[in-house]
Amino acid sequence: MNDPVVERIQANPKYKELREKRNKLGWTLAVLMLVVYYGYIALIAFDKSFLAQPIGAGVTTLGIPIGMGVIVFTVVITAIYVRKANSEYDTLTAEILKEASK
Questions:
Q1: Are 81 and 26 in contact (CB under 8 A)?
Q2: What distance, in Å, lies between the first and last C-alpha atoms of the chain?
Q3: How far is the C-alpha of 16 from the C-alpha of 32, rounded, in Å?
């Protein structure tokens, strides 16, 4: 594929900047998610008694709020990526496309 527009986009330093920033954030968030998720699974596998501790006088155990924390963490890092994409990455993409169409 030797499309001149594609070649201009790939040669644009802003495109390289966009790719680097997006990849860095994506990998960082992915690693954080893996650490949190697999950390929770490892806690289940290796320290069930810790998660089985009741909270207060009720029947809820410590594992429930920690599991909910994993879910909330997932939503938060997704929101971080979406906000970054909408504020910074979309602007860079529009600039790149504008420069490539000249």
A1: yes
A2: 20
A3: 24
* CA atoms within a 13 Å half-sphere pointing along the CA-CB vector of 34: 6
Q: CA separation (Å) from 66 to 53, 58, 61, 62?
A: 12, 16, 9, 7
- Could you tell me the two tokens for 101? 């169409």
Give per-residue pLDDT as tens, 33-89.
Answer: 999 999 999 999 999 999 999 988 888 999 999 999 999 999 999 999 999 999 999
**pTM of the entire structure?**
0.80
The DSSP bridge partners found for residue 61 are 54
Contacts of 71 (CB under 8 A, 6+ apart): none
Cα 12 to Cα 69: distance, rounded to the nearest angstrom: 41
DSSP assigned state of 58: S
Query: Which residues, including other chains, have CB under 8 Å from residue 2's CB and lie 6 or more apart?
Result: none
